Amino acid sequence: MMARWLAGLAVVAAVILVFSAALPAGLALAAIGLLGLLFIGRAVVARQLTGYTPADWPLLALLLLLPVNLWASPDLGVTLPRVYALIAAAALFWTVAALPERPWLQHAGWVLLAAGLALALAVLAATPFSASLAGLPLNLASLQARLPAGLLAPDRFNPNLSGQLLALFLPPALALAFAPRAAHPIQRLAAAALSLLLAVLLLFTQSRGALLGVALAVPVMTLLVSRRWLWLWGPLALAGLGFGVFMLRDSAQAPAALSAALLAGGSDVTATAQGRLELWSRAFYLLQDFPFTGVGLGMPEQVVNLLYPLFMVGPDSQWVHVHNTYLQIGSEMGIPGLIAFSALLLAVGTALIWPARHAAAPWRKTLALGLLGSLIVFAVHGLVDAPLASPKLMVLFFGLLGLMAAVAVPEETGAAGER
Fold first, then answer.
1. Secondary structure of residue 136 in the 3-state scheme
2. Is 318 in a helix, a strand, or coil?
3. Model pTM?
4. 34-92 tens-digit pLDDT
5. What would the pLDDT profile of 207-243 be if each residue is shown by its tens digit?
6. At 210, phi and psi to the nearest 5?
7. Is residue 185 exposed (0-12), middle (13-18) or buried (19+ Cβ within 10 Å)?
8. CB neighbours of residue 193 within 10 Å
9. Burial status of residue 102 (CB atoms within 10 A of its CB: 0-12, 13-18, 19 or more)
10. pLDDT tier at 152 (50, 70, 90 boundaries)?
11. Residue 206 CB: number of other CB atoms within 10 A?
12. Residue 418: what pLDDT?
């Protein structure tokens, strides 16, 4: 009972930090103090500072870099809310990662399906879709026009962001749909229906990065289940490689081909290969000039416009982030932050591989497989976008990372929760 109260307090503190901009400043500081006391208290009771999850040290390293990040930032008004969001994200990660001590972790599949359905409905109401997609007898724009006006939030999500969010929940839905021993027949049917809905919406977003992430995640997931899938994915990979070489054989057409293959296109120059390459080059400048401290969370746009003027991307363009998760983290927190963040993803990913292949409990094996697919989607799509630049999306993703860490805990540690 005490553990539930403490977890509830941590979640409340995280919510206060996420919405700190709309609350008195003292509340945010009190929430940080509460989280610090909870962290120290847990360390004293357990007689260990870390070791609860495979990603404790990388995440702790990110938090320890925050004072330096605040010192380096030229505008604390921009950086401070993002610092609060990262602290909230870490708190949610550790709270969710404690799930092996709870018997309802094995029902997390239903939670993922419900979250995926809610996300699909939100995306349908808030994303400006293309009128139609070649080969699909469906017009989402027409469907949106039939929704009640109160349900619509036009242009709140851009298609690329919607694509990544949908793609994150597609691998777990697929894993549950094709896991006969791990899921109840009703759950399998719900997962199959949700997989179809997410896939259709993902196609309509035309987010190339998200589609590529799914295209890599699904083969990895199936190969972890059985190597016989290599007979399918091997020839397809060779055919895709050959097609890519054929498309890029003319170096003069390479940027346009890359833009068509990975990016969403459109009138926004940041959605073209040329525009993003220019942003990436400026992020490299930031890494070179501020390698140890970075320029502060949320500050790359202001610093780039001041020190490294853009030519392809006009001065009136609000690009917010550099459209690459790793370059964004590196430019904001320096090379130490980039190393810590990369180690965080690698630690969680490698920890998921063993339960995805060998877990005795079928539900744990299925969840590990689906969540590993979600992590692959994020890692791949992060090459062409930076959703963590949004504080709320950062907290959402770290909560998902916490669930990954909970599922990855060795079964003897979480055995009490499985009985």
1. strand
2. coil
3. 0.90
4. 999 988 888 887 777 777 788 999 999 999 999 999 999 999 999 999 999 999 999 99
5. 889 999 999 999 999 999 888 888 888 888 888 788 7
6. -65, -40
7. exposed
8. 14
9. middle
10. low
11. 18
12. 44
Buried b (16+ CB within 10 A) or exposed e, 292-309: ebbbbbbbbbebbeeeee
pLDDT of amino acid 351: 95
CA distance 53 to 40: 16
Please give the C-alpha separations between residue 24 and each of 19, 36, 140, 365, in angstroms, as whole numbers.
10, 19, 42, 44
Using CA atoms, how far apart are residues 415 and 302, in angstroms rounded to an integer? Answer: 50
Q: Which of 79-83, 94-98, 241-245, 358-362 has the lowest mean pLDDT?
A: 241-245
The total of other beta-carbon atoms located within 10 Å of residue 392's CB is 13
Range ranked top by mean pLDDT from 193-197, 246-250, 312-316: 193-197
How many Å separate Cα 97 from the centre of its chain? 16
The answer to whether the Cα torsion of 221, 226, 232, 238 is positive or negative is positive
Between the two ends of the chain, the Cα-to-Cα distance in Å is 18
* Nearest CA among 397, 336, 395, 366 for reference residue 91: 395
CA 217/CA 23 separation, integer angstroms: 40
CB 93 within 8 A of CB 401: yes
Q: Torsions phi, psi of 413, nearest 5?
A: -75, -40
Alpha carbons 42 and 210: distance in angstroms, whole number: 38
Q: CA distances (Å), 310 to each of 258, 265, 277, 317, in order?
A: 21, 19, 11, 10
- 10 near 95, Cβ under 8 Å? yes
Provide the pLDDT for residue 25: 80
Cβ neighbours of residue 266 under 8 Å, at least 6 residues apart? none
Helix, strand and coil content of the chain, in percent to the nearest 5, comes to 75, 0, 25
- Flag whether pLDDT at 411 surpasses 90: no
Band (pLDDT 50/70/90 cuts) for residue 265 is: very low
Q: Return the domain boundaries, the chain.
A: 50-418
